[in-house]
């Protein structure tokens, strides 16, 4: 009898732990993109956008998204910004130097648990676009009027 009671108590305690206390880490940001734009001062900006995941029943509410950046080939990402969950899921990295850049986004929950990262990359070039010339008119054709 005593063993049955102990087993029942253990079952209840473990059930409470797995259902209410132990939570999965958050899901990574969805549709993470990086787009290069030119600002009015002639510098390049990178607009980052993503879709925050909706927490499942076994996940905590989201605190926000931590963004990181590195020049391609560097070993570590540097922190760029933290965007709170109640803010629009977009950020503009302003005045970005020329080069190949890699961005990383990580979802953070209210217990500061982080998701797996999402990645996006862009190439920034401040070189002006080449001027296109009008093509030469075709030759070797004869106009026929009917």
Q: Look at the structure and give the CATH class of the domain at 24-124.
A: Mainly Beta
Gross morphology is: elongated
User: From the helix content, strand content and strand pairing, which structural class follows?
Assistant: mainly beta
Mean pLDDT: 86
Number of DSSP helices? Answer: 1
* Largest sheet: number of strands, sense, barrel closure: 4 strands, antiparallel
Range of helix content: 10-25%
Which residues sit in consecutive blocks of at least 5 with pLDDT less than 50? none
Q: Classify the beta-strand content into a percent band.
A: 35-45%
At CATH level 3, the topology of the domain at 24-124 is Immunoglobulin-like
How far apart lie the N and C ends?
A: 108 Å
Describe the strand arrangement of the main beta sheet, using strand numbers.
Answer: 4-3-6-7
Summarize the structure.
The chain is mostly beta strands and 146 residues long. It has one helix and seven strands; from the N terminus they run αβββββββ.
How would you explain this protein's 3D organization?
By secondary structure, this protein is mainly β. The protein has a domain at 24-124: Immunoglobulin-like (Sandwich), CATH 2.60.40.10. The protein is built from one helix and seven strands; from the N terminus they run H-E-E-E-E-E-E-E. It has one helix spanning 2-21; strands at 30-38, 44-51, 62-71, 78-84, 90-96, 99-109, 118-124. The chain has a four-stranded antiparallel beta sheet with strand order 4-3-6-7, with no helix packed on it. Strand 3 and strand 4 (78-84) form a beta hairpin. The longest helix is centred in the N-terminal third of the chain and has 20 residues, at 2-21. The mean pLDDT is 86.
